[in-house]
Task: structure prediction
Amino acid sequence: METLRLVLLYVHLIGFAMLLGGSIAQYVSGRLRINAAMLWGSVIGLLTGIGLAAPLRDGHEPPSAKLVTKLVLALLIFVMVFFSRKRASVNRGHFLAIIGLTLANAAVAVFWH
Result:
């Protein structure tokens, strides 16, 4: 089971990298729109996060409040990305909120024990 958890964590980190990397690349380019990396990163992060929340740690599960917080953040990110993916341009505040929520989700994962 530990191997499965580590594979899920690895794929989860790839999803995070795709989402944040795609966002930063779009922001630096000056063209604020949702790209494929952002969409797939949010999908991968959400699905693997749900998989990581499964009780695979032999009694060492993270607190439920942390899991719910991360799920809510991941759902917000996914919704913000999914429903604005076909727009030619995304509002600057909306785009920065996606980046901010992505960083907040990572902060919850790292700093909440």
About this structure: The two ends are 21 Å apart (CA to CA). The helical segments are 2-29, 36-53, 64-82, 92-111. Residues 2-29 form the longest helix (28 residues). The mean pLDDT is 94.
